[in-house]
Amino acid sequence: MTSTTFRILALAIALAAGAAYGSDDDSRSHHERDGRAAHADAARGAFQTVPNAAAPGEPAFGWQYFADAAGRRAVVISPEGTYYFSRGKGLRAVAETVAQQTAAATDPGSRG
Hints:
This protein is an alpha+beta fold. About 40% of the residues lie in helices and about 20% in strands. The protein contains 3 helices and 5 strands. The protein is globular, with a radius of gyration of 17 Å. It starts with a helix and ends in a 6-residue tail after the last helix. The mean pLDDT is about 75.
């Protein structure tokens, strides 16, 4: 259940980032110029916090979301401390806590 909710929220973030660019041909050069500016902003850390109002007991409770709509990127941090990164094509785990790494090393069957 948490995985499904997590994926839905990640998809919503990715769609919101994509919607900022649109697909109107008349504004394509404007968007290309914005894309170059966004790349420069990305180097300066343009991530914004995405509010999460999930209450205790709800699947998204404890998750933290950050998005850079201009750079079409998102970072999600699980309650356990795993960091996920997306460039709009799904999330991938990029960092875990030492405790998670130790648990995975001692129980090889835990990582499907």
